[in-house]
Amino acid sequence: VETLDASSPVPADETGETAVAALFQARYLDMVRLAVLLGADDAEDIAQEAFARLLTRHVTLRDPGAALAYVRSTVCNLTRKRWRHSLVVRSRTLAMPDQASAEHTAILHEDHREVLAALATLPARKREAIVLRYWLDLSDSEIAAAMGVSAGTVKSQLSKGMGSLGKALEALA
Amino acid sequence: MSGIHDEDLDSRVRAALQARAGQVALGPDGESGAWEQTVSRKWRARGLASGGNRGGRTRRWAAPLAAAASVAAIGAGIGIAASFHSAGPGTVASPSYSATAIPTVPGLPGPNLKRAQPITQVVLVKQEFGTSTSWTYVWFANVGWFSDKGKTLVACADTYESRQGGTPQLGAQGCTPIALGGSMLAPFGYQLGEPAPAFDQLGVALRRVTSVAIQSDTDKNQKVQGSLIDGRGFPYKVFMVTFPAKTNLTQWKLVAHDADGKQDSVPFPVATAF
Q1: Of A26, A94, B41, B226, which sits with the fewest C-beta atoms within 10 Å of its C-beta?
Q2: How far is CA B58 from CA B52, B54, B62, B107, in A?
Q3: Contacts of B242 in chain A (CB under 8 A)
Q4: pTM across the whole model
Q5: Cβ within 8 Å of B, A 43-102
Q6: Sheet of strand B185-188, all strands in order from the earlier edge strand to the far edge
Q7: Where are the alpha helices (DSSP H) in B95-253?
Q8: Complex ipTM, two decimals?
Q9: Can you name the residues that pair with B27 across neighbouring β-strands?
Q10: Residue A121 CB burial class (10 angstroms; 0-12, 13-18, ≥19)
């Protein structure tokens, strides 16, 4: 009996699966965290889906930096789409507060909790821009690539988002 | 607008995000489990994607399999009658594979691959019986045609067969729901076309199973060792036991062992068929 990988006409090394595995090892937890900060309920699922999509496309991603940018962008897109769906579902049932568990709320510093609560009230795009800038320290162009918008839009979203955040925090105070 | 927020707000946001991110931990499967699931998704994604893009799927399967240098060296030893199986008893599949070794491998997709989209890797098993050669594609799928209540996990196989070097013809093929029922293994009926020089018995086994064989109830020395087939994303192992068509199988059974030495068996031959 001889068994062959019928699904992979391209040798494994040439598909770059090893390189993706290395990227996964280095960045998977970060991508889970990114999804959490963007408001995902199923952060691990989103991160895995993002890397799975990279596995199907890595042949065309010759630049390792582009691979990470691709995963980051996919996490943003998937979180945004699922968040929208989630909002629709919730509006048809009962209002479900978009907040973290009681356990993590209790552990977090009071000020952190307030900031995160205010952040959760922002529209998805503004929240994305803020998280990508203030947690990942990405440049405007990197944020633009992740969000699929122009650098000008990033600046605008950041500025308006931080303004809205400040007002939300004042309201909470 | 950029002057609305201040440095204090910037630092508060940074600190809050860092604090929240620091609380995030991976699930019980950890990173290695997550990677396995991710790779499994890759194959599912390919299957789903191909369903909506017929041209894409055609190109994917049309890629020359002869160029497949990535060989899953999964084949366990075949302990079948030495005079029968060309590989001989105890032979382990070679981990390398010549690009010209299977020049006549039949084209894909087969009928089941068209209607039962793989959610796992598709593994190709090649066997030779004297002048006959068979190629069996094995994979798992979720299909809706077994139940009105939702999808059913099935193990699928498409077999092509060539006699005396002739053009490969589609042989036995089908998908069977997984029904272990507390057992370590569950066979599903299967055989090469008549008149066949050999029969294959396929089935699924728990992942902890390390060997499957058919064995005589009356003489434990009469035994045909099977192969265990594994692939990325496989929820179960698939076993394949091949035996000469003329074997007298009165009072035989299928026997599975796991790594702890536990044994389980089911009656054989199996009455069900695709």
Answers
A1: A94
A2: 12, 6, 6, 10
A3: 1
A4: 0.45
A5: 43-44, 47-49, 51-53, 55-56, 100
A6: B185-188, B198-205, B237-244, B227-229
A7: 111-115
A8: 0.78
A9: none
A10: middle
Identify the bridge partners of residue B253 per DSSP, sorted by sequence position: B215, B267
Q: How far is A40 from chain B (nearest CA, A)?
A: 12
**Type of residue numbered A134:** Y
Give per-residue pLDDT as tens, A92-135. Answer: 332 233 344 444 444 457 778 888 888 888 888 999 999 999 99
Q: Give the Cα separation of B222 and A46 in Å (integer).
A: 52
Q: If DSSP codes are grouped into helix, strand and coil, which group holds residue A42?
A: coil
- The token pair that represents A173 in the structure block: 């105070």
Chain A residues closer than 8 Å to B97 by CB:
2, 4
Alpha-carbon radius of gyration of chain A: 19
- DSSP 8-state assignment for residue A95: -
- A172 close contact with B: CB closer than 8 A: no
Cα gap B98→B102, rounded to integer Å = 8
